[in-house]
Design brief:
heterodimer, A: mainly alpha, Butyryl-CoA Dehydrogenase, subunit A, domain 3, 8 helices, globular, B: mainly alpha
């Protein structure tokens, strides 16, 4: 039997180990610190509430990333509804927030790269974030995004092609 | 941490000691802004409804002349105004046969003595 003090200790270890990588994963999706902080808190709250449902079919890390990914998307959807915008206009909102974020240390190259990333369809963008920054294996990405490995490959390829086009000088 | 991740973190900063301050106690109950804020999905319709209500009340108020406004009615318009705006109880005494409220004959007569004489009012305009 697990005592409450034991489970609290377990949760403390969990947050200590995964907070930083999860935060950075979320920050790349929502693009500003305040939203990333909110999404991180909400993701942990969901994870603590649903820990009994974790069946161990994927690693704990993958499961947490899955929750963080879903919670990030929910946050973006809420933001889109708030501004009564179609999903396609979301990139402008994200980029405006990024520019206004006091924690974004403006750099022209980075801003241009984030602009190009924001223009990608959301699925391609998320696949690219996990491939490029996290360097995750395809299988793990497929589990987090709940798509097939083939779809991961296709989305990654399309994202790279579009980014090349966006970032080319002409 | 790879070079690309490092580059991202270099340009997207966090508050000082942010990760050191993150703890399980903080996550036990969500303190996120989204939970504290009014659900904005309801805010817009609520705002719209309030605006319509304010406009409706404003125009409703405008339809009644204020105390210092001159009433420039024709006799016919004035009668319509009196009928629609003055206390219906007052006017109903005139038709007490139809709207008899149980008052005695003397009570009705006393009341009619004090009643606004529409004819006099019309002539004064």
């Amino acid at each position: 039997m697990i005592r409450e003090s034991d489970s609290n200790y377990g949760y403390s270890l969990l947050t200590k180990k995964y907070s930083e990588p999860l935060y950075w994963f979320i920050r790349k999706i929502v693009l500003n610190h305040e939203d990333a902080n909110d999404v991180l808190q909400d993701s942990y709250l969901k994870a603590f509430q649903k820990i009994d449902q974790f069946e161990g079919r994927s690693s704990l890390k993958t499961w947490l990333y899955q929750i963080a990914y879903r919670t990030s998307l929910d946050a973006l959807k809420k933001k889109r509804n708030r501004f009564f915008l179609p999903l396609s206009s979301m990139s402008d909102v994200l980029l405006n927030q990024l520019k206004a974020d006091s924690y974004f240390d403006a750099d022209e190259a980075e801003l241009k790269f984030q602009q190009a990333l924001a223009k990608l369809p959301h699925r391609q963008r998320e696949v690219f974030l996990l491939v490029y920054y996290e360097e995750m294996p395809l299988k793990e990405i497929a589990t987090i995004l709940k798509i097939t490995e083939g779809a991961v490959k296709a989305n990654s390829h399309l994202a790279k092609q579009k980014l090349k086009k966006f970032l080319s000088p002409d | 941490m790879n070079q690309k991740e490092n580059h991202f973190r270099k340009h997207h900063k966090v508050p000082q000691d942010y990760f050191e301050k993150l703890s399980f106690d903080e996550f036990k109950t969500s303190k996120s802004r989204s939970k504290k804020m009014l659900n904005v999905q309801w805010a817009a319709p609520l705002f719209g409804f309030s605006l319509i209500l304010i406009i409706a009340l404003y125009y409703n108020d405008q339809s009644l002349p204020s105390a210092d406004q001159t009433i420039d009615f024709t006799s016919e318009e004035f009668e319509t105004y009196i009928v629609s705006e003055l206390s219906s109880d007052l006017l109903m005494t005139e038709y007490s046969d139809y709207y008899y409220d149980g008052s005695s004959q003397s009570e009705i007569e006393d009341y009619l003595d004090d009643e606004i004489d529409t004819e006099i009012l019309i002539n004064q305009l």
